[in-house]
Amino acid sequence: MIDFKLIALDLDGTALKEGGWLSDTTRQAIAGAVSAGYIVAPTTGRTLSEIPDEVLAIPGIRYAIVSNGASVMNLESEEEIFADLLPMDVTKPLYDLMYAQNLAFQAYSEGVSYCDEKFITEVVQYFGGRGMNYSWLAERIRFVKNLPAYFKKAGKRVEKITINWISAENRPILVKALSEIPGIAVTSSDPRNMEINSSTANKGAALMQLSQVLGIAREQVMAIGDGQNDIEMLAFAGFSVAMGNAVQDARKAASYVTVTNNEDGVAVAFRKFLGIK
User: Fold this and answer.
1) In this structure, are residues 126 and 84 in contact, taking their beta carbons and an 8 Å threshold?
2) What is the pLDDT of residues 121-146, one digit of tens each?
3) Under a CB-based contact definition with an 8 Å cutoff, are residues 94 and 152 in contact?
4) What domain range is 269 assigned to?
5) Residues 183, 94 share a domain
6) Are residues 98 and 153 in the same domain?
């Protein structure tokens, strides 16, 4: 058995079942891994405030990689130990593009998701339509009258911009427009969405930073994920696991493919590779 020390664990589509909930089986597997001495770090595209309470309530969860690697947090000290934010000179063209195409978007900053009040109906309907375990996310979004003006006045930097839903017809148009803006990287955690970070921010780069801070060798890092935004961390880790529901590129990047999130694939992988019952 490999001497793992750090486990980067994606949430949506991985630790969380369809509908965004954490099963008792997976929760017990995570708690068992932490009790056995493994450092389990939720590694997600979500902001810190959007990580489910039941995940953070697991005793011993000390670190989190959020906003697709734009921020790495020490949860015990509430300190940010690494940040890779969107360059300030690209935020205005990104805002302009979103408004020109009338796309409901959220901007993440300092662990909180912000949204313009003009998009409140679309955003609430989107999360509400995904069920109770996603509808509470809308309650944690801070809606402001004018997002660019608010961020400028508050002096806030942007971790990530996310667009929850883009039609198949509009996606190629948006991809082309974004390709003309330097300093950004575009990925997704869901076939419907699009996520925009700094060109150097991703879960793999953040996982490397966290492992270096903790003095853990790459060979002792395990990563588990399912989406396009998990590929870099799956490639970085000494050993990586893709979910049975993972996109093809994530499967290719992984060392092993477990069963789906709806079949508690994380618990299955922990049992197989960590000996967690």
Assistant:
1) no
2) 999 998 888 888 888 998 999 999 99
3) no
4) 6-83+201-273
5) yes
6) yes
